[in-house]
Specification:
single chain, transit peptide, transmembrane helix, transmembrane, mainly alpha
């Protein structure tokens, strides 16, 4: 029993200091805007950057370490190299082969564009000449021909001949 009596003051001090309620103090909960959207945005940016950066980094590392740059070699006789085979880097070759347009095709498209523009210029010059001739000669614009039905011409001629026969006193024989 003497041991319990000696520990009693120590137990009283421990229990008094451990469980205090501080409800009467004037502490307040500070209101502040939430940072949830910002943290969510950062998480998504890091996720998608890593989703793209890690595979691209691994692919670039593999290509540069294991494949390496292209080396020049003799072209076999009768073989015509493709346009993407002239690039040194394997990544550039892949992009040129699968994604970039053929330079010859682009050149031909550009030549076609120039030809079409020259034709437009030539047609504008001809149109300007026509307009100058119209103004010079006092003509009017008539770019089209409107056909006349022959049926009405025949009816008009027949009517004219009937009227002429009726009014003609001395018919010629």
């Amino acid at each position: 029993m003497s041991l319990v009596s000696k520990l009693k003051p120590l137990l009283r001090i421990a229990t008094q200091n451990s469980a205090k309620r501080a409800m009467s103090e004037h502490r307040t909960f500070p209101l502040q805007p939430t940072r949830w959207q910002w943290k969510k945005f950062k998480d998504l940016v890091h996720y998608y950057v890593m989703l793209g950066a890690i595979p691209c980094g691994l692919f670039t590392f593999y290509m540069n370490v294991f494949e390496g740059p292209a080396t020049l070699s003799e072209i076999p006789e009768g073989y015509i190299p493709k346009y993407w085979e002239y690039y040194k880097n394997p990544v550039t070759r892949f992009l040129a082969k699968n994604f970039y347009p053929d330079p010859q095709q682009e050149y031909e498209k550009f030549c076609t564009y120039i030809f079409v523009e020259q034709e437009k210029i030539r047609l504008r010059e001809i149109e300007q000449k026509v307009l100058n001739h119209i103004a010079e000669r006092g003509d009017y614009q008539a770019y089209y021909y409107k056909p006349v039905a022959a049926k009405y011409q025949r009816m008009t001629r027949e009517g004219y001949e009937k009227i002429k026969d009726l009014h003609d006193i001395n018919p010629q024989e």
